[in-house]
Amino acid sequence: GDLKQAIYSFRNADLPTYLAARQTTDAAWTLADNQRSVQPLIAALNTLFTRHAQPLLQPGLDYVPVQLGAKPRPQLLDTSGGATAALQLWRLPLGDDGQPLAKPLLQARVVQATAAEIARLIQAGRDGRAMLAAPSTQQTSEDASGQQPLDDLSGQRPLAAGDIAVLVRSHRQGSLVRQALAALGVGSVELSQASLFHSPDAEDLERLLAAVLEPTRVPLLKAALATPLLGLDAAAVLALGEDEAALQTRMQRLADWKALWARAGLGAMLRRLMRDEAVAQRLLQRPDGERRLTNLLHLAELLHQGAQQHRAPEALLRWLQSQRQAGRADEASQLRLDSDRHLVQIITIHKSKGLEYGVVFCPFLWDGRLRANGDGLEGLDGHDGDDAVIDFRAGLDPAFDDAAAKEAARHEAAA
């Protein structure tokens, strides 16, 4: 498989398993085309990651250069005097004494610089000096940012706030960016995990899981079949009630999924379900299919995380229902999408999969995360031969802490 897919824990995937499996075969497949970026950015990334023998810091994790895909993408043309490179790397500032700044102060400086550059670009767009230019003048439909289509005659339009995304790791980082932008009079919207739980995709998944846990309840079965995940229309659902054999077949399939869930966990069950029902193929036939599939996979990972505390299937479903109920009074603010799409988008790296933007800022890539040594048992996930292990020596063995920090740094870089 592709290395890019080996970091999704809800699929029971991890890097040690990927590396071990790769050693057992001479054949390897990878994603060679980039369908989301312009040629200058692709070339810059290829150059950056091929100048080092181990750019991902771990033996066996190789960077495979990619090429431009078939889909044309608009390119930023900035004539306002700012930097024009497709990939721009900023150096972190040092203190007056030449030493690294404390993390809180460094975060503040980085966020302020990011907000200032975003404000400058938006103003340049208003002045007609920052444009998104298409490689082809055939693009006439509204693009992913929700902005106006590229002009049919000139093949370009002014850069707008909705074309700009800021990728963060956490809600706290997103709040810092939003406050800095607001201080400069720039509107933004933070696309949070909460909005994902309140999405139609979460509702569909809840209906499906409820039916799996009670496979003989016909109303739950019909509600699940009517979701885009299983894809039956109203006529087909109605006809099922008059076909006892077909109804029993559907119930048995739900029962099989339920048994697999209890035996092997949610991830294994969802993988089987998606394969049995060709869920990905069905969703991708929809105009918004890529987004819907991305949401489904993200929800699956959130459920995988929730299962660490709610191991029983029934408890996990109740947890999902509680997440969907939480903050319902604020749901109106989560659904202001028509206006939100014209604001700067603040979004987690994870949730950004499947989305595209004209300009992307990643102000916190320098800010690695290590496990905290606080109260309670903290472990480092890993492998001992073919066995998955959790080592609880953190904070007790300085040599282990040093090795764990280095291992965490390697995984952070690879992810």
SS elements, strand count: 11
Q: Low-confidence parts, pLDDT < 50 over ≥5 residues?
A: 137-146, 148-153, 329-338, 370-378
- What count of helical segments does DSSP give? 16
Describe the main β-sheet briefly: 4 strands, parallel
Radius of gyration: 24 Å
Strand-and-helix sequence, N→C?
HEHEEHEEEHEHHHHHHHHHHHEEEEH
Kindly state the mean pLDDT as a whole number? Answer: 81
In angstroms, what separates the terminal alpha carbons?
A: 16 Å
CATH H-level superfamily title of the largest domain: PCRA, domain 4
- Spatial shape: globular
What's the number of domains? 4
Might you state the CATH topology name of the largest domain? PCRA, domain 4
The percent range for helix content is 40-55%
**CATH uppermost class of the largest domain:** Mainly Alpha
Strand content: 5-15%
The CATH architecture classification of the largest domain is Orthogonal Bundle
Structural class: alpha/beta
Strand order of the biggest β-sheet: 7-8-6-9
Concise synopsis of the structure shown:
The chain has 415 residues and is α/β, with parallel strands linked by helices. Helix content is 45%, strand content 10%.
Overview of the structural elements:
The protein is of the alpha/beta class and 415 residues long. The chain folds into four domains: 1-71, no CATH class; 74-193 and 361-367, no CATH class; 199-326, PCRA, domain 4 (Orthogonal Bundle); 380-414, no CATH class. Helices cover 45% and strands 10% of the residues. The strands form four sheets. Strands 7-8-6-9 form a four-stranded parallel beta sheet. The protein has a three-stranded antiparallel beta sheet with strand order 3-4-5. Strands 1-2 form a two-stranded parallel sheet. A hairpin with a 2-residue loop joins β10 and β11 (387-391). The longest helix is centred in the first third of the chain and has 24 residues, at 103-126. The protein is globular and about 75 Å long. The two termini are 16 Å apart.
